Amino acid sequence: AEYHKEYYKCNKKLFLLKVFRGNGINNQAWKLSKSLIKISKTFKFYDIMFQSAETLRYYCSLKGSETEYDFYNKLFNHAYKTYEAENYSDELYRILTIKYAKSVSMKPELIPVAEDYTKQLKMLAMKFDSYILHYNMYRVWFVSEQIKGNYRKTVEVCEKAEKYLFDNPPFCQVLKLAEFALNKMYCYMLL
Q1: What pLDDT, in 10s, does the model give residues 36-57?
Q2: Does residue 182 contact residue 174 with C-beta atoms inside 8 Å?
């Protein structure tokens, strides 16, 4: 998929950027950071974006360019906060699946936890435009509905997730679609 290819290329360039910066090759680091910002904005690679913006704001401070520094500092802060939200969404999904994975039997004690996680991620998804965050929100949401035994609602959540993926073509990946399709099939068997 194009998304994965671009992410791989960006990580190779990010490594090179760190080499340039560590060896004082400032012009190349500056150019590479700017190109990484452009790609990371297109694909919403917030981890790449905040690291590239950090390099650019560093060089702007060395140049004494306050206006450019402010621009890259704002970009850095936005990308970093979004990256933190993405990681938090992944953390909540992992915690929930660890508790649920040992057995798919009904676990009423997990319902309040799953509902709270879903609520938190829905709020974060309204605040941050992040593919990873939205993806994890839908995953936590459908697990929450499965825990409650609400299989019709689980199917609806999976369909919303599929719509999100189709509405965001750069991020629509076969494996992600398959995950939601398999969960729908599982739910249809239980209805």
Answers
A1: 999 999 999 999 999 999 999 9
A2: no
State the amino acid at position 67 in one-letter form.
Answer: T
Separation between Cα atoms, residue 68 and residue 56, nearest integer Å? 9
Burial of 191 (0-12, 13-18, 19+ CB in 10 A): exposed
Q: Which residue has the higher pLDDT, 99 or 177?
A: 177
Residue position matching structure tokens 């750069």: 170
Cα–Cα dist 123/137, whole Å:
10
From residue 89, give the alpha-carbon distance in Å to each of 15, 68, 86, 94. Answer: 26, 32, 5, 9
| Angle made by CA atoms 51, 138, 97, in degrees to the nearest 5 | 90
Q: CA–CA separation, 155 vs 146, rounded Å?
A: 10
The long-range contacts involving 163-169, CB below 8 angstroms and separated by at least 24 positions, are 164/134, 164/135, 164/138, 168/131
The CA distances from residue 150 to 8, 18, 134, in Å, are 38, 49, 21
Rounded distance between C-alpha atoms, residue 125 and residue 14, angstroms: 27
Q: What is the DSSP letter of 82?
A: H
